[in-house]
C-alpha cells in the first residue's frame, strides 16, 4: 500500500513497540478501500453541506479558514464527511450476500435479555440468599441492593437489556438454559458466586438494523484479515532489511 511506503525501519519498530502498527495499517487501508466508493452527486453535496453546518461552517471563507486551521485539504475534508455513507455502501455492496449466514452463526449471542443478578465471593452467603429467594422470604431486588458486590447493587440487580453474547461465557450459558422467572442456584465465575434470574428474553431478528450490524461485522473480519497480512509483510521486510544491514 503506497501510503505506508514512507515508513522507515525505525518507524515500523516504534509503531510495533507501542502497538500502533496495526492501527495505522487499518486506518490507511480503510481509507484506501473507501475513497473509490461512488456516491451520487446530489447525495454527496447534501452530506458535505450538512457536515459543514455541524462544524459551524457557513461560507466559503469560513471553510477555507477551517481547512487551514486544521491542516486539512479539501479532499481530506470531503473524505471525512463522506466516510460513513461510503462505509455503509461498501458493506452493503460487498457483504450483503453473506448476512444471512453470519446471522445464523451469531444468533445465539445476539438474543436480547434482561436478567437479575446477585454476586458475592462468599459461597455460604450466596447459598443463603438463594434459599431465601426460593422460599419467597425476601425480594431479589432488595437482596441485590443489600448484598451484591457489583454495580448491579445500584439497580436492584437488574442487568440489561443486553445481548447474551456480551456476558461472560459461563454466565451466558446459564442464561440460555434458564426460563424467565426461575432463580438459578449459585455458580462460580471468576472467583464470585452468581445467582441469576431471567426477567425477559427477546430472540434476535434479521431486521434492517441487524442486517447493517452483520455487514459491519463481516467488513471488520475482512479488513482485519487484510491488516494482519500487511502487518506480517511489513515486519518480514523490516527483519530482512535488518539482517542484510548486519
Question: Would you write up a description of this structure?
Answer:
With 246 residues, the protein is of the alpha+beta class. The chain has two domains: 2-103 and 208-245, no CATH class; 112-202, Chitinase A, domain 3. The chain contains ten helices and four strands, in the order ααααααβααβαββα. The protein has helices at residues 9-17, 21-34, 41-54, 60-69, 74-95, 99-110, 123-134, 140-147, 169-177, 208-245; strands at 112-120, 158-163, 187-189, 192-202. It has a four-stranded antiparallel β-sheet. Strand 3 and strand 4 form a beta hairpin. Helix 5 crosses helix 10 (208-245). The longest helix has 38 residues, at 208-245. It is elongated, with a radius of gyration of 26 Å. The two termini are 27 Å apart.
> What percent of the residues sit in helical stretches (DSSP H or I)?
55-70%
Q: Roughly how many Å apart are the termini?
A: 27 Å
What's the number of extended β-strand segments?
4
Strand content: 5-15%
Main-sheet strand order equals 2-1-4-3
Helix/strand-derived category reads: alpha+beta
Please state the average pLDDT score: 92
- What is the total number of structural domains? 2
Number of helices: 10
| Overall shape | elongated
Order of helices and strands: HHHHHHEHHEHEEH
Uncertain segments: none
Largest sheet: 4 strands, antiparallel
Assembly form of the protein = single chain
Radius of gyration (CA) equals 26 Å
